[in-house]
């Protein structure tokens, strides 16, 4: 399966795909409890992150536009969470304040050295297939290994944390609990040297 790096012309596709994929997510329901507003709130929320990711990381989408992986490349000269938190607090509703709080708390668990951060990996509805997930992840892992930095993420389920082990991720050595939200399962992958 082929994947590609998204561009700014893909923003609407990315926001639609992510809003659909995360509509019923347990973590998202905690932050956006009103179902009648959730889809549009999610589209706006993901737009903020997609615009930054396309400048300071990337979004990888599959050839059929059914899956997306959004990541950030954190280093001393790259993005700061404070910019994102300010946008979330200043531009939107109380729901965004809840998400800004969560994102701020999660950022405290990130590695302190340069790293890639998987913000979201999504395949909506019945399209959830390991071939799409693997294709998206292999592209990111290739980029991570080229950059020579660790890759960090939080999983919303222990089974996802275990599946990530097949791709070289290991459970982080700490528990991740933010008041008012379900427990998350952090993972970390060290860069690998390419076999020649």
Task: Report on this structure.
The chain has 196 residues and is of the alpha+beta class. It has one domain: 3-Layer(aba) Sandwich (Aminopeptidase). Helices cover 46% and strands 18% of the residues. It is built from seven helices and seven strands, in the order E-H-H-H-E-E-H-H-E-H-E-H-E-E. It has helices at 11-22, 26-31, 35-56, 81-91, 94-107, 130-147, 158-164, and strands spanning 3-5, 57-62, 68-74, 115-122, 151-155, 170-171, 185-189. It has a seven-stranded mixed beta sheet with strand order 1-2-3-4-5-7-6, with helices on both faces. Helix 4 runs antiparallel to helix 5.
Write the layout of secondary structure elements.
Elements: E1 3-5, H1 11-22, H2 26-31, H3 35-56, E2 57-62, E3 68-74, H4 81-91, H5 94-107, E4 115-122, H6 130-147, E5 151-155, H7 158-164, E6 170-171, E7 185-189
Parallel strand pairs: 4-5
Antiparallel strand pairs: 1-2, 2-3, 3-4, 5-7, 6-7
Helix pairs in contact: 1-3, 4-5
Summary of the model, kept short:
The protein is α+β, with helices and mostly antiparallel strands. It has 7 helices and 7 strands; from the N terminus they run βαααββααβαβαββ.
**What general form does the structure show?**
globular
How far do the termini sit from each other?
Answer: 23 Å
Number of helices: 7
Biggest sheet strand order reads 1-2-3-4-5-7-6
Could you say which structural class the secondary elements and strand pairing correspond to? alpha+beta
Biggest sheet statistics: 7 strands, mixed
């Amino acid at each position: 399966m082929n994947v590609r790096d998204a561009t700014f012309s893909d923003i609407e596709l990315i926001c639609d795909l992510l809003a659909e994929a995360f509509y019923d997510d347990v973590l998202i329901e905690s932050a956006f409890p009103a179902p009648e507003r959730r889809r549009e709130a999610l589209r706006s929320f993901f737009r903020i992150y997609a615009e930054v990711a396309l400048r300071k990381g990337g979004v990888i989408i599959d050839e059929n536009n059914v899956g997306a992986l959004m990541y950030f490349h954190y280093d001393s000269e790259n993005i700061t969470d404070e910019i994102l938190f300010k946008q979330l607090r200043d531009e939107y509703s109380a729901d965004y304040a809840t998400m800004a709080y969560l994102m701020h708390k999660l950022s405290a668990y990130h590695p302190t050295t340069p790293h890639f951060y998987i913000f979201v990996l999504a395949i909506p509805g019945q399209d959830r297939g390991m071939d799409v997930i693997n294709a998206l992840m292999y592209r990111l892992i290739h980029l991570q290994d080229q950059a020579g930095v660790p890759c960090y993420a939080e999983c919303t389920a222990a089974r996802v944390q275990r599946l990530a082990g097949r791709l070289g991720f290991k459970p982080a050595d700490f528990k991740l609990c933010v008041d008012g939200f379900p427990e998350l399962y952090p993972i970390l992958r060290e860069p690998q040297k390419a076999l020649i």
